[in-house]
Each structure stands twice: as structure tokens, then as C-alpha cells.
Amino acid sequence: MNKEIDSGESNFLSKLFSFRGVMNRTEYLIYGIVFPIILISLGIYLASSMPEGKTFLIFVFLGAIAQLATTVKRARDRNENIAVLIIALFAFSPIVILYLLFAPSKELEEGKNKKSRVLLYVLLGLSLITIIGLVLAKLMSNSNENVREKLVCVKMKSISSNLKIFKLDMARYPSTEEGFQPLLTNSYLSRSPLDSWGHDLKYINKGDDIELISYGQDGYESNDDILFSQCQ
User: Which GO terms of the cellular component aspect does the record hold (predicted)?
Assistant: First the structure.
């Protein structure tokens, strides 16, 4: 008899230190902290070297805040409360430090500070590399995710067919509590079904119908879940 695989995603430590957890937190670090810091740094320099720099700095600062807010919302949608906490506690600290270190001064306003020019070139290079890297990573990720979503829908359709055969033979669907175990026990399935990301599929008995759910890439219940009823 096959045993159901316990992914352990409900455990806090496994969420925190799992590969997916590390990747999610890296994403939050880049989008929620590194990128806003680069934006603010550029804004501070340009504010010191342009006549309209003060106004420009305000818009850049608002853009950084919007970036932070978007990242926090994404983390909350994924139920990543630890990521929300980290972003909220540490995101603005480096920004304040950068402002204190590189705030506009008389030398900067006169354009005579060579170090500030070096800083500008470094930040421009980092910004360009970061933007290009993020765009390429996003394009590749979206392409792979689309393929995986289609594959998980195909797999759900196959499992749904097995469930219908089970119902014809047993005059009922397995209960939600039973899950896929009756299908495994009676050889309707050879092993516990996983989605395209290696997570256990969730099964729900809705009486006359059933629902299959994949939690997607992050493996946590969120707004990004893939429902079999939406795969049609």
C-alpha cells in the first residue's frame, strides 16, 4: 500500500528553509528592498544635480514606496507573513541611511563631487543589470509556469476520470477526509498524485461533484491556486 506523502509545508521551519521558501524570500529581498534602495539612491543623486531634482526625488520616493507596497501585498496573498514582517522592519532603514550619507550638499549642487559621479555610474550599472536580469527571469519563469499550469490541468483531468470510474464501481466519491486513499487502496491510482511542482494535490468532495486543487509554485494556499473546475 502506498503511503501518502507528507510534504511538511505546514511546518514553519520547512516553509522558512525549504528551497521554495528561500527562493520566495530572495524574490522579496530583490523587489522589496534592493530595487527600492537603488531607486532612492538614484533619486538622491539626481535631486542634487538637477534644478528640478527635488521634485524628481519625490516621484522616485513614491515609486519606491509603491514597489514596497506591491511586494508586501504579494507576500500577504501568499500567506508569507514572515516576509511581510522582514520587509516592514528593514526596508526603510537602508533608505534612511543612504539619504543621510548622500543627501544633497553644496558640493553636490555645484557638481564638483567626483565621488558622487562614481556612485551614479555604479548605481546606473546596478540598476541596468538588475532590471535586465529581472525581466529575463520573469519571462523565463512565466513561460515555465504556463507550461506547468497546463500540465497540472491535464493531470487533474486524468485523476478526475479515475474518480468517476471509482464512483461507478462504488456508487460514491471518496469523502474529503479519505482523500485519494480509497483509490490507492483499490488500485485506481498507483501513487499519491502530485502537481507539476511536486506538491500533493488537494481533493474535495462536493457531494455530486469533486474539486481538485493545486497550490501552485509556492505550495501554499493563496489566490494563485489552480482549480480543476477552472481548467475546463
Answer: membrane
pLDDT of residue 57: 61
- Extended beta strands in 95-229, E state: 202-205, 210-214, 226-227
CATH number for 147-230: choose from 3.30.1490.20, 3.40.50.720, 3.30.700.10, 3.90.550.10: 3.30.700.10
CB 231 within 8 A of CB 153: yes
∠ CA 134-144-33 to the nearest 5 degrees?
A: 25
Instruction: Calculate the alpha carbon distances from 213 to 6, 28, 56, 79, 196 in Å.
Output: 16, 25, 46, 17, 12
Quote the crossing angle between the two packed helices 92-102 and 35-49, to the nearest 10°.
20
C-alpha distances (whole Å) from 145 to each of 2, 85, 150, 173 are 29, 27, 9, 31
Rg (CA), the chain: 25
How far from 63 is each of 46, 70, 81, 117, 164, CA to CA, in Å?
Answer: 15, 11, 23, 23, 52
pLDDT band (50, 70, 90) for residue 205: very high
Look up the pTM and report it. 0.46
Taking the C-alpha atoms of residue 76 and residue 209, their distance in angstroms, rounded to an integer, is 31
